[in-house]
Amino acid sequence: QSHAGQYITTQTVNSHDKSNQNVNETTSSGMFSRYWIYSHHIYSKIKRKNMLDMSKEYNLTGFVLPGKPGIICIEGDSKNVSDWWAIVRNWQWKRLSLKI
Question: pTM for the whole thing?
Fold first, then answer.
């Protein structure tokens, strides 16, 4: 308890440094993109897990709404989003459409 003030100050400074580093990484290409992807349905847990794993690799954020219809929102650095989309669109889908 006696070191709580020092701990909070240290953690605040460290998290502030990390957030600035992340901002610099994501703005490296200078463009931000958000893709809205609509699918006939998304039920596959494997596809959802693979999308999550790939989004971490490409430093992207977003969400998936499984069900019928399925909705995917993916955002981040424009080149990374485009590369991620190039892989995902080649998976087997009944119907898939992109709204940028």
Answer: 0.68
Q: Which of 33, 25, 29, 26 has its CA nearest to residue 73?
A: 33
Rg of the chain, C-alpha, whole Å? 18
Q: H helices within the chain, ranges in order?
A: 4-26, 45-57, 78-88
Pairing mode of beta strands 61-65, 70-77:
antiparallel
Place of tokens 């039920």: 43
Distance CA 93, CA 40 (A): 8
- What is the token pair recorded at 76? 């981040």
Place of tokens 């440094």: 17
Please give the DSSP secondary-structure letter assigned to residue 69.
S
User: What are 25-36's pLDDT values in tens digits?
Assistant: 444 567 999 999
Q: How far is CA 79 from the centre of its chain?
A: 13
